[in-house]
Amino acid sequence: MSNPTFTDDEIIAFLDEMLPSDRMTAFETALRDSEELQQRFAAVSRRRDQGAHTVGEVWRRRQLSCPSRTEIGSFLLGTLSDNDSRYVDFHVRTIGCRFCIANLADLEGELKKSDDTPRRRRKFFESSAGYLNRQ
Length: 135
What we know:
The protein is about 75% helix and about 0% strand. It is mainly α. It folds into two domains: about 10-60, no CATH class; about 70-135, no CATH class. The longest helix has 18 residues, at about 115-135.
């Protein structure tokens, strides 16, 4: 089995539980087996705990690139613009943001439970059309 390499950014993402699940599993396995990775992990963790933050770390921790829960819900309903819809799809399915995947799964569960979805969807479109006509 080959020993995968991990960047300091991936170690930080692991600490923030933001790595995709397959990469998280590989990291945990490598961490158990590699003393060098254990030392790097400890050093990165110490540096982070001492307040040394990079722009990337702040960006990930604050989830600045994540769509809002409302946008994810609109994505599920098919009411986002094409550009926004492509971004949410890319963010969830390609980037694999665990936070947004969890939101998507939760909203999908709620959507399946709801027998009221067609009526709410029609109401949403009607209210949007009325809003757009006023402008």
